[in-house]
User: What shape does this take?
Amino acid sequence: MFSNQTAASLATLIVFFSLAVSSTPAHAADFSGSWQGSSGTVQLFIDGVDQGTAPCHAFDFNWEQSSFELKLVRGYWHCGYQLIHDVSEQVYEIRGSELWLWGESAGTLTEDSIELLNARDGQQSFTSFQLVNSATIIFTSSWSDGFSKFIVRGTLSRTN
Assistant: This one.
């Protein structure tokens, strides 16, 4: 038989554990692993006018995911002759379905997607990793400064 103090401590621990577990979406997919693609497109707009598309030749993203954080270990895409984007490591804190980076809300994590938002210095970017199945992601990334805009699209496959 537990004393009243021990029972109260156990009850507090159970409530704390329940809150900790419920703060992470139980339905969130696991994006961990290496995701690569070798074909896609980039579409360019200048002052709202479509300037056409160019091919994308390489996509490579490596994610590590736990119940409390989503880490982009590395990210890379290459489109056309000059458009190369290399992303350094970023660690997002998972708060429910929200992703936080550097103390600011930076996107969402759901059962089938990662959505990242960034608006700074007159520029806006949106990146989405939409899970089609456990082995395929549709990648979309857009960037705009109010005058120019590009949209990158590709299909990525899990390689491990």
Residues 1-26 have pLDDT under 50 and may be disordered. The first strand starts at residue 33 and ends at 37. The chain has one domain: 26-158. The longest helix spans residues 4-22.
